[in-house]
Amino acid sequence: MEQRLAAMLRYLAANDGASVARVCKQLGLARSELQRLLAALEDDAAAGGLGLVRRIEDAGRERLALTPRGREWLERHA
pLDDT tens digits, residue range 20-66? Predict the structure, then answer.
Protein backbone atom coordinates (compact mmCIF):
# COMPACT_ATOMS: atom_id res chain seq x y z
CA MET A 1 0.00 0.00 0.00
CA GLU A 2 2.89 2.36 0.71
CA GLN A 3 3.95 2.11 -2.94
CA ARG A 4 0.47 3.14 -4.07
CA LEU A 5 0.50 6.08 -1.66
CA ALA A 6 3.84 7.27 -3.02
CA ALA A 7 2.68 6.76 -6.62
CA MET A 8 -0.41 8.85 -5.99
CA LEU A 9 1.59 11.65 -4.38
CA ARG A 10 4.04 11.68 -7.30
CA TYR A 11 1.17 11.76 -9.79
CA LEU A 12 -0.50 14.66 -7.98
CA ALA A 13 2.79 16.55 -7.82
CA ALA A 14 2.93 16.42 -11.62
CA ASN A 15 -0.83 16.83 -12.16
CA ASP A 16 -2.07 19.06 -9.36
CA GLY A 17 -5.84 19.38 -9.38
CA ALA A 18 -6.39 16.10 -11.25
CA SER A 19 -9.89 14.69 -11.21
CA VAL A 20 -10.62 11.65 -9.07
CA ALA A 21 -11.53 9.70 -12.22
CA ARG A 22 -8.20 10.60 -13.86
CA VAL A 23 -6.22 9.58 -10.77
CA CYS A 24 -8.03 6.23 -10.67
CA LYS A 25 -7.38 5.61 -14.37
CA GLN A 26 -3.72 6.63 -14.33
CA LEU A 27 -2.90 4.59 -11.23
CA GLY A 28 -5.07 1.61 -12.14
CA LEU A 29 -7.19 1.91 -9.01
CA ALA A 30 -10.85 1.24 -8.41
CA ARG A 31 -12.64 4.19 -6.83
CA SER A 32 -12.99 2.22 -3.57
CA GLU A 33 -9.20 1.65 -3.48
CA LEU A 34 -8.61 5.36 -4.01
CA GLN A 35 -11.03 6.21 -1.20
CA ARG A 36 -9.05 3.96 1.19
CA LEU A 37 -5.81 5.69 0.21
CA LEU A 38 -7.39 9.10 0.67
CA ALA A 39 -8.58 8.17 4.15
CA ALA A 40 -4.91 8.05 5.18
CA LEU A 41 -3.71 11.02 3.14
CA GLU A 42 -6.44 13.62 3.43
CA ASP A 43 -6.18 17.14 4.64
CA ASP A 44 -8.25 16.52 7.77
CA ALA A 45 -5.36 15.78 10.13
CA ALA A 46 -7.70 16.28 13.09
CA ALA A 47 -9.58 13.15 11.98
CA GLY A 48 -6.40 11.09 11.80
CA GLY A 49 -5.33 11.88 8.24
CA LEU A 50 -1.79 12.83 7.34
CA GLY A 51 -2.81 16.11 5.74
CA LEU A 52 -0.94 15.40 2.48
CA VAL A 53 -3.83 15.62 0.00
CA ARG A 54 -6.91 17.82 -0.21
CA ARG A 55 -10.11 17.49 -2.18
CA ILE A 56 -11.32 20.37 -4.31
CA GLU A 57 -14.97 20.66 -5.40
CA ASP A 58 -15.03 22.32 -8.81
CA ALA A 59 -18.45 22.73 -10.44
CA GLY A 60 -19.56 19.34 -9.16
CA ARG A 61 -16.30 17.60 -10.11
CA GLU A 62 -14.08 16.29 -7.39
CA ARG A 63 -10.39 17.03 -7.83
CA LEU A 64 -7.32 16.18 -5.76
CA ALA A 65 -4.29 18.30 -4.98
CA LEU A 66 -1.25 18.07 -2.75
CA THR A 67 -1.11 20.26 0.31
CA PRO A 68 2.14 22.08 1.11
CA ARG A 69 2.76 19.35 3.69
CA GLY A 70 2.30 16.75 0.92
CA ARG A 71 4.91 18.45 -1.26
CA GLU A 72 7.35 18.55 1.66
CA TRP A 73 6.75 14.86 2.38
CA LEU A 74 7.34 13.97 -1.25
CA GLU A 75 10.60 15.95 -1.39
CA ARG A 76 11.90 14.17 1.73
CA HIS A 77 10.90 10.70 0.51
CA ALA A 78 11.71 10.99 -3.21
Answer: 999 999 999 999 999 988 888 886 666 667 888 998 987 888 999 99
Q: Residue 46 has what pLDDT? A: 63
Enclosing domain of residue 49: 2-77
3-state secondary structure of 43: coil
Judge contact between 23 and 64, C-beta under 8 A: yes
Count how many Cα atoms sit within 13 Å of the Cα of residue 53 in the half-sphere of its side chain. 30
Check which CATH number belongs to the domain holding 53 and give it: 1.10.10.10
CB atoms under 10 Å from CB of 8, counted, come to 24
Q: State how far the Cα of 11 lies from the Cα of 5, in Å rounded to an integer.
A: 10
Q: How many residues does the chain have?
A: 78
